[in-house]
User: Fold this.
Amino acid sequence: DVQLVESGGGLVKPGGSLRLSCAGSGFTFRSAWMSWVRQAPGKGPEWVGLIRSKSDGWTTVYAAPVKGRFTISRDDSKNTVSLQMNSLKTDDTAVYHCTTGGQFWFDPWGQGTLVTVSS
Amino acid sequence: QSVVTQPPSASGTPGQRVTISCSGSSSNIGSDTVNWYRRLPGTAPKLLIYNNNERPSGVPDRFSGSKSGTSASLAISGLQSEDEADYYCAAWDDSLNGWVFGGGTKLTVL
Assistant:
């Protein structure tokens, strides 16, 4: 079975940094585009960004609200994808989901990790 | 406000057919395919419909999707109590160069 497990969430002050990780298993990780999608309480999902596979150049694309603050990276030798979040704002408070895809759709999604930005 | 809009709520009785709409623009739904996701309480969203009207393996044929112009719809026939969930549409937006999601529709089975 395909599995995605996120970790690294927590409470951080505005302006602070946090690094999320996602471990994938049950699929050919190196061939997959990987994305991060977040969902704030009571709101719809919001796409954060994606990283393409090696064959597609390992290139990244980010949503406007996080561009320049967030960085997505991957380690295909460890089947992990990471989300480095800097200059965090209260609006970044959400559950962050790792998901395979981003080229055509997102499937599956991990359970998510909660990030709370508050003083 | 979301770039793609959905009604915040929908409801129906067991056995009924309900539809959930998703309205976008020429830069997203009008130029790309639509996917639908369902989020059951306490779980992560799951792909329900892809490429406007295709169902992943395991999704019953009670669920169907359609698209016309800049709008899309999700139809659920033979409504069941376990269909109570939040439903989201999504599409790639060429102007924003990113994915956009609807705000979600909470379906209640009365």
User: Anything to note?
Assistant: Chain A is about 0% helix and 50% strand. The first strand of chain A starts at residue 3 and ends at 7.
